[in-house]
Amino acid sequence: MKNYKQIGKGSFSTVYRKGNDKDVLIISTDPVKECMSLDWFPESRLFPKVKRISCNEDGSQTYVMKYYGKVTAPKRQLNKRAYALYKELKNLSVLCLDENLMYEKWILAFNSLSNRFKNVIEVLQDAVDALTNYGPDICFEISPRNIAATKSGNLVLLDCFFLRSELRKVKKKLEDNNLI
After folding, report:
1. What residue ranges of the chain have pLDDT lower than 50?
2. Which segments of the chain does DSSP mark as H helices, in order?
3. pTM of the full predicted structure?
């Protein structure tokens, strides 16, 4: 990782960039990244291309992905259609006490998007379907920290999906090691 600078860190992943490279390296234990790298996610400009380049001794994997700058002001950085989609996605909420039914709830939630996003509905539902290979407890969270905007202002969902059970494992490991 010589000459790489850490530019991001989340529950599952740490992101590094070398200088002004157009790509980033991601060290991750995230099953969603794995799913994306296996090309199980639908082909869509809504999602970044993620390529796995190695499996690491600690169980993590290394991926490469295009670098996207930070979104700090979605209304300003996204085009009108993309911002309207962002707002609708941000307003979605799923309350589900049975984790085995969460994926079904998200399918229904995405189906409630405006008809003008009909193609997006199918893409998001296909992503949920792909993630069921890892478990039914799929969650979706959208905020400026986990999206990107293309040069033309289109929305890219970088890191919006996660599995609740995997997040629980990460948090337990941190607690067990007195890191939180």
Report:
1. none
2. 31-37, 74-77, 80-91, 102-111, 118-131, 164-176
3. 0.91
